[in-house]
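Why do we care about 3D structure at all? Because function follows from shape, and shape follows, mostly, from sequence. That is the central idea of this module. The next example makes it concrete: a single protein chain, its amino acid sequence, and then its structure expressed as tokens.
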Amino acid sequence: MADELKHAYRDRWVRFHGLPGSKRYPGTADEYGIALDRYNTVLDELFTGQEVYLITCDWSDHPEPDARPDDHARWHPGARYWTSVCQNPTETDAEFISYTHLFVSQIPWRHGAVDELLCAVADDATAGVMIAGLCLKRIHHPYDGGADVLLPTTAARDTLMHRHAR
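And the structure:
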């Protein structure tokens, strides 16, 4: 669902690359440091001093989630099951029906608060992560290769985009 936001709110969306040259995956400790710095720099600007929702996903072929995998529980401690969404509601063949299960927590934002999760995202070990302000007007969706950010206005998007152009 996080991937859909850029299409629904194109006028308020901006993309930031995680590594120089649009490299997708970090391969060295230095590159992990660059990716984390880029994620955290924008997150700090969006959320310093605020509470945020941290949203993560699991997937299955049935409407109720299974127990969370150990690594997902480690990356998102304190997460509570929120809801499930059928990814293909018009599908009639049970073999092709899948569900996204959303888990949420509320945390005070601080630099580095979710670095282990962000590293897992950078490695494509998990996806669908969103970090959002409590009013849901600012959303940061990290993915392997960068992050999509939604802001309340086009002007706010343009300001952030120009401040962090690389």
